[in-house]
């Protein structure tokens, strides 16, 4: 090995290291402040690790704040959204993958357009529509809105998974007398299970992160999701940094779990709607 | 009905009973109906409603509002200094975010394209920011910029970049950079993931052939890597531009458009009008302007694409 080669390998590893540090530092800091006891928070402000650690902030957040409710609400909303979207998107994605039909072009165009236009436009009209139905300040209202927002992208994603399964399979089943729907349910769906899991993960993460519509539609604490609860906590008790960061760490846990679940499908997911963050 | 007719014409010797054929023809519509109905009622109907609000006086707290007022909102908008600033800020925010995300994302993709020990774990770690919910990314970075608990102001001060450890989010000149940095941190993985996938699709023997012919690494990058990546780069950058110009979460969380509307982009300005001032009419008027701008931009892309295709 020449000296030049060693040098370029070294530069490569250093650059990688810099990226890892940049990616992890904010999360590391979040964790660090969340385990720093209050009496050290200011005196040891920018030390890399506090001289003492404690879980007092986590304990407070779990016992004396409403974060467990927010957490539960977010779980309900994101979980139901993920399940409903995946069911609807499997059906629609199957149609897109297996049939050629009149109007298909327009349906695809419509779904692509929904990925492009500013959703913030809909904040006001959706509020006006849901409010007389009693769906503001309700988890059901949020689930309906999030489901609609995520269906187009999930449909493209499911379509890409169905496209990867040969058509012969259900044709063989249909020759044996099964209807197409039975073939779809009993043969194709089980084969797409990994794709279904990935779609669940993507939609769950998207719903868990949504902020603007939950801020607009939810006002009371009972139906507040995690983002709403955390932001109102920040504006009310903006000095309790330890507690806020402990709550932040808790919000991070489900997101990270689902990230692990969908890691293998990131490319497919990011290019399915081509625009979804 | 047309489609049914077309179908039966196409399969003249079809001996199946009519009921069966009808069921087959309607199958794709039945599969996609639930998704479509939902999209139409929760996205398309509000979109049309929102466009109508732009010409009406709709204030949530005023029960007497609701009448048509023609172009009054747009007249007010043409004199709204904050709106013009939000427009300029949108360009600034989108331009810098996309540029930095793309450059750092491309470098990261190139670094990860080389095989090395522990690549899988490194990949999971550097892509992790993408999984962080945007509100939490925003809060996390606003805490890092906060001199009370965050290290960044102290580091900037130590490096001589600041005369005292202050919060850049409350500095009218600099506040826009807080959300931009958070956005770059959050968005690098998106570009890295898509570009890495494109990189790995390049046939490896091309590189071998080129290096046998004596091409250096820079030459190989310019004559093999870039041409292969170009379509992916073009599509991701163009689509990402639209997405980021609409992306208001980080600004809402970190600066709330402040101080004094200095870091407001159009999307966050719409949200502020609707959420804080509850003036749905005015918010919808701004939204309509944003929609027209985005449609114009998309049309430009389509025209540009056709021009490029016809040139080949």
**Number of helical elements of chain B:** 13
Question: How many domains of chain B?
Answer: 2
What is the average of the pLDDT values of chain B? 87
Task: Predict the CATH topology of the largest domain in chain A.
Answer: MetI-like fold
Order of helices and strands of chain A: HHHHHHHHHHHHHH
Measured by residues with Cβ under 8 Å of the partner chain's Cβ, the largest interface is: A-B, 89 and 93 residues
- By CATH, the architecture of the largest domain in chain A is named Orthogonal Bundle
According to DSSP, the number of beta strands of chain B is: 0
In total, the number of strands of chain A is: 0
List unreliable stretches of 5+ residues of chain A. Answer: none
- CATH superfamily of the largest domain in chain A, please? MetI-like
Folded structure, characterized:
The complex is a heterodimer of chains A (277) and B (312). With 277 residues, chain A is an all-alpha fold. Chain A has 2 domains: 3-54, no CATH class; 66-272, Orthogonal Bundle (MetI-like fold). In chain A, 74% of the residues lie in helices and 0% in strands. Chain A contains 14 helices and no strands. Chain A has helices at residues 3-34, 38-41, 56-64, 67-98, 104-116, 123-130, 139-163, 168-175, 180-191, 193-209, 212-217, 226-236, 241-262, 266-272. In chain A, helix 12 runs antiparallel to helix 13 (241-262). The longest helix of chain A is centred in the first third of the chain and has 32 residues, at 3-34. In chain A, 45% of the residues are buried. Chain B is mainly α and 312 residues long. Chain B folds into 2 domains: 2-53, no CATH class; 72-311, Orthogonal Bundle (MetI-like fold). Chain B has helices spanning 2-10, 18-53, 72-78, 81-113, 119-127, 134-145, 152-158, 177-200, 204-212, 217-245, 249-254, 266-275, 280-311. In chain B, helix 2 (18-53) crosses helix 13 (280-311), helix 4 packs parallel to helix 8 (177-200) and helix 4 (81-113) packs antiparallel against helix 10 (217-245). The longest helix of chain B is centred in the first third of the chain and has 36 residues, at 18-53. The two termini of chain B are 41 Å apart. Chains A and B meet through helix 1, helix 4, helix 5, helix 6 and helix 7 of A and helix 1, helix 2, helix 4, helix 5 and helix 6 of B. Chain B: It comes from Rhizobium giardinii. Chain B: Keywords: Cell membrane, Membrane, Sugar transport, Transmembrane, Transmembrane helix, Transport. Chain B: It is a multi-pass membrane protein.
């Amino acid at each position: 090995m020449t000296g030049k080669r060693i040098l370029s390998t070294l530069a490569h590893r250093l650059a990688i290291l810099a990226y890892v540090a940049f990616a992890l530092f904010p999360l590391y800091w979040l964790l660090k402040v969340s385990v720093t006891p209050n009496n050290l928070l200011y005196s040891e402000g920018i030390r890399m690790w506090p001289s003492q650690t404690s879980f007092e902030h986590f304990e407070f957040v779990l016992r004396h704040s409403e974060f467990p409710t927010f957490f539960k609400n977010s779980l309900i909303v994101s979980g139901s959204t993920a399940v409903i979207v995946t069911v609807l998107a499997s059906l629609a994605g199957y149609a897109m993958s297996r049939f050629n039909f009149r109007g298909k072009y327009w349906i695809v165009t419509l779904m692509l357009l929904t990925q492009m236009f500013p959703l913030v436009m809909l904040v006001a009209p959706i509020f006006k529509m849901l409010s007389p139905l009693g769906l503001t300040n309700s988890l059901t209202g949020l689930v309906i809105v999030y489901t609609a927002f995520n269906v187009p992208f999930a449909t493209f994603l499911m379509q890409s998974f169905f496209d990867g399964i040969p058509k012969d399979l259900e044709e063989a089943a249909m020759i044996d007398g099964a209807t197409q729907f039975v073939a779809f349910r009993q043969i194709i769906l089980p084969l797409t299970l990994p794709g279904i899991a990935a779609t669940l993960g993507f939609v769950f993460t998207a719903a868990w992160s949504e902020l603007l519509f939950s801020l607009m539609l939810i006002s009371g604490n009972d139906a507040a999701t995690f983002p709403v609860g955390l932001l109102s906590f920040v504006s009310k008790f903006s000095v309790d940094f330890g507690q806020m960061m402990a709550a932040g760490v808790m919000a991070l846990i489900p997101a990270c779990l689902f990230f692990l679940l969908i890691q293998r499908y990131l490319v497919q997911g990011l290019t399915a709607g081509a625009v979804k963050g | 009905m047309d489609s049914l007719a077309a179908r039966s014409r196409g399969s003249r010797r079809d001996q199946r009973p009519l009921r069966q054929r009808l069921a087959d023809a309607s199958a794709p519509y039945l599969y996609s109906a639930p998704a479509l109905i939902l999209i139409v009622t929760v996205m398309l109907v509000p979109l049309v409603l929102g466009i109508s609000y732009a010409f009406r006086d709709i204030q949530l707290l005023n029960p007497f509002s609701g009448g048509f007022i023609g172009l009054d909102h747009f007249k007010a908008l043409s004199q709204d200094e904050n709106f013009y600033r939000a427009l300029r800020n949108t360009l600034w925010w989108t331009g810098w975010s996309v540029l930095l995300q793309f450059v750092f994302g491309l470098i990261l993709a190139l670094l990860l394209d080389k095989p090395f020990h522990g690549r899988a774990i490194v990949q999971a770690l550097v892509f992790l920011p993408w999984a962080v919910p945007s509100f939490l990314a925003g809060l996390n970075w606003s805490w890092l910029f906060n001199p009370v608990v965050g290290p960044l102001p102290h580091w900037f001060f130590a490096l001589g970049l600041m005369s005292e450890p202050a919060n850049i989010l409350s500095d009218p000149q600099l506040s826009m950079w807080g959300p931009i940095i958070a956005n770059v941190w959050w968005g690098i993985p998106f570009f890295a993931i898509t570009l890495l996938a494109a990189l790995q699709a390049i046939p490896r023997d091309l590189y071998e052939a080129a290096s046998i012919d004596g091409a250096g690494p820079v030459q190989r990058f310019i004559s093999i890597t870039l041409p292969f990546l170009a379509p992916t780069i073009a599509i991701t950058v163009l689509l990402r531009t639209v997405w980021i110009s609409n992306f208001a979460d980080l600004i809402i969380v970190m600066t709330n458009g402040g101080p004094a509307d200095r870091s407001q982009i159009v999307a966050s300005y719409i949200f502020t009008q609707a959420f804080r001032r509850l003036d749905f009419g005015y918010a919808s008027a701004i939204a309509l302007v944003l929609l027209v701008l985005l449609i114009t931009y998309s049309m430009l892309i389509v025209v540009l694409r056709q021009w490029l295709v016809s040139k080949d």
